[in-house]
Amino acid sequence: MTTHPYTLAEPRVSTALARMFEAAERDGQTAPRLGARNFAERDKLTAQQLADAAQDIYMPISAQGGKLLYNLVRATRPAQVVEFGTSYGISTVHLAAAVRDNGAGHVITTEMSQAKATAARHTFAATGLEDVITLLEGDALQTLAGLQTPVDFLFLDGWKDLCLPVLRLIEPHLAPGTLVVADDVDLPDLGPYLDYVRDTDNGYHSVTFPVEDGLEISCRL
Questions:
Q1: CA-based radius of gyration for the chain
Q2: Chunked in runs of 10, what are the mean pLDDT values of the chain (221 residues)?
Q3: Which of 45, 80, 114, 203 is deepest in the core (most CB within 10 A)?
Q4: In what side-by-side order are the strands of the sheet with 106-111?
Q5: Between the CA of residue 7 and those of 66, 91, 108, 156, what are the distances in Å?
Q6: How far is residue 37's CA from residue 174's CA, in Å, rounded to a whole number?
């Protein structure tokens, strides 16, 4: 019987994901204390201050959402995947596993929190996926500004009010047919982004996929 690569099932990968998803379940206790995603004084805080305040909160993609990301990357076989918002690396591991199983490609991911970036790097090393991942630490609007090559798959899961600015920054690198995926369509801060990608005049055909908080999957026209 022929075996097929499926990195998500490798023990070191599946164990890491199980550990992180279990830790993420505690977000329900941590988030109210820190005001995650809806800080009472958010307008008074810088993006870095917000990232530092949320450094203990996973805010991950759902398990089913992660599997969907894996399938989308396997199917589209992108040479370069860009992710906005690493957090502790749950979604990054799914993206990188798909790239690994495709036999080609690379993931560039971004994280502002130093604590989260450090933890994510440890996870990438422990899962053996670090060679297909580049983690850019800092403000994504700055770290991604230097991109010179095409972006073949874009996943947006950082601060929701920054998803549209990040998309607009990367748009010159998106070829027709490129998929752009955003998490948490139910969050109000994602509203301007959704209005943008749901308007075909802006060059996208968009559909909402009902997984957990919802994924918006947009094809660049």
A1: 16
A2: 85 96 73 46 60 58 94 98 95 98 97 93 97 96 94 96 97 97 94 98 97 94 97
A3: 80
A4: 133-137, 106-111, 80-84, 151-156, 174-183, 215-220, 204-209
A5: 13, 14, 18, 23
A6: 28
Residue 221: C-alpha distances to residues 26, 121, 130, 165 (Å): 40, 35, 32, 19
Strands 80-84 and 106-111: parallel
**β 215-220/204-209 pair status:** antiparallel
Half-sphere exposure of 149 (CA within 13 A, CB side): 11
* Partners of 155 in the β-ladder: 83, 181
Looking at residue 53, what is its pLDDT?
57
- In this predicted structure, what is the pLDDT of residue 43? 59
In tens, the pLDDT along 5-40 reads 899 999 999 999 999 998 888 765 555 444 444 444
Angstrom distance (rounded) from CA 207 to CA 190:
15
Confidence (pLDDT) at 85? 94
Torsion of CA 154, 159, 164, 166, to 10 degrees: -60
Distance CA 174, CA 4 (A): 30
Domain ranges of the chain: 7-16+57-220
